[in-house]
Write a structure and sequence with these properties.
By secondary structure, this protein is α+β, with helices and mostly antiparallel strands. About 10% of the residues have low confidence. It has 1 helix and 9 strands; from the N terminus they run E-E-H-E-E-E-E-E-E-E. It folds into 2 domains: 49 residues, no CATH class; 88 residues, Immunoglobulin-like (Sandwich), CATH 2.60.40.790. Helices cover 14% and strands 33% of the residues. A hairpin with a 2-residue loop joins strand 5 and strand 6.
Length: 176
């Protein structure tokens, strides 16, 4: 959305046969390049199409095409000893989830299948399905031999112990 200035509106006044005056507010367009004008026009068209779809299908619907692409939500916690990654992957079996660690990057991927029956047409479809992949760079090295993952009730939890060299060291100060 382009920036506007309080003086960027012009007022068109039109005399009509009755004693009342009609005023139309028209946004002033600053001179701009062809590229900038085209981009602003596309952005306006996109906003208008969003408004049309919102009023037609209601606010509960998602944009077309997003039901086949999804990204599971995840939270990352850390303490002095480990990182804990918690991801929401409901409706999946543990065999459908892949977890890998390459260097200091954790990757969680998988595919949630559609539960659509052959020949059925959805009246309302809001659940996501399809392939996903989340890659998360970790801020310090982890001990790859001690990484553990658990999956219960649609929640995946990956515990990544920090490598000894990445753990904070307590340094005792001595008096001389």
């Amino acid at each position: 959305m382009s920036n506007w200035h309080p003086l960027s509106f012009s007022i068109a006044i039109r005399k009509v046969s009755n004693p009342f005056t009609t005023m139309n507010i028209i946004r002033y367009r600053y001179p701009q390049s062809d590229f900038s004008f085209a981009f602003d026009s596309l952005a306006s068209m996109h906003e208008e199409l969003d408004r049309v779809f919102e009023s037609t299908f209601g606010s509960g619907s998602r944009p077309l095409g997003t039901l086949t692409r999804w990204t599971p939500a995840l939270d990352v916690y850390q303490d002095k000893d480990q990182f804990t990654v918690v991801a929401e992957v409901p409706g999946m079996k543990k065999e459908e989830i892949d977890i890998s660690l390459h260097g200091d990057t954790l990757t969680i991927s998988g595919e949630r299948k559609s539960h659509e029956k052959q020949g059925d047409q959805a009246f309302r479809a809001e659940r996501f399905f399809g392939r996903f992949q989340r890659s998360l760079p970790l801020p310090s090295a982890v001990d790859t031999e001690k990484v553990k993952a658990t999956y219960k009730d649609g929640i995946l939890e990956v515990v990544l112990p920090k490598a000894e060299e990445a753990k904070p060291k307590q340094i005792e100060v001595s008096l001389s």
